[in-house]
Amino acid sequence: RRHVLEASQQLTEIINSCLESETSTQSSEPSGEAELAPEEESAQHCLWVDKFTPRRYVELLSDDYTNRCLLKWLKLWDTVVFGKEKAVKKAKPSTGVHPPFNHSKEQQNKWKTKVQLTEEILEAELDQHKRPKYKVALLCGPPGLGKTTLAHVIARHAGYNAVEMNASDDRSPEVFKTRIEAATQMKSVLGANEKPNCLIIDEIDGAPAASINVLLKIIHRKDAECETAAGAGRKKDARGETAAGAGRRRRHEGGLLLRPIICICNDQ
Description:
This protein is about 50% helix and about 10% strand. The protein is built from 12 helices and 4 strands. The chain has helices at about 1-25, 30-45, 50, 65-75, 80, 105-110, 115-120, 145-155, 175-185, 210-220, 225-235, 240-250, and strands at about 135-140, 160-165, 195-200, 260-265. The protein has a 4-stranded parallel β-sheet, with helices on both faces. Helix 1 (about 1-25) runs antiparallel to helix 2, helix 4 runs parallel beside helix 7 (about 115-120) and helix 9 runs parallel beside helix 10. It is found in: Nucleus. Keywords: ATP-binding, Cell cycle, DNA replication, DNA-binding, Nucleotide-binding, Nucleus. InterPro entries: AAA+_ATPase, ATPase_AAA_core, CTF18-RFC_complex, P-loop_NTPase.
């Protein structure tokens, strides 16, 4: 491993020296070379897989249909997260011109593309809080396919701060629940612009069953439960402290899930 790293370091230095010689012959300003020196020095010490990783949506080489579906699902959260109203699609005028051709939905779906059918499935049902029907996206496939890279790139492309956690490392259900609620209910404080978090749970197939149940409880948490939890804490009846204690316990469970979660696994 040491020999491989040394050979890689030497080859990287050769490539950088060739690039520097080309740029020096093309540019006549010496100040530009001084400004790029720290970046080139940091690039020499990073791995190739990090140096050439995709950073924008157009640089992704994975399946385009999967990329579009994941981006479409993530954009369905814009109303809840960013307060953007969903654009209403205008009906085509050609649909009402030929009234005799009334086919069933199955016959109409035969002429639709795979992307159109997926968009209709995703937008079919939105709950009362204008959240998408499916609260979690699951990316599955063999190692090295680019699942984690896809999740990070699309999260940044949609305006989120990608927060990654490994389900195999956090084996305790309490720690698992704390990290999920911290990522989905708190804003990012890093950087000048505060962005909402998008939680990426890697190796979800390595999490124990108790942690999966914790995730399912957070996903299926309803608004009625949150209102009951808040009201039970204020209510004083014949039971007194018992009702207040129940309200405090329920209030600790948190509120609705208002941030998207992307899970990644190798074995579906």
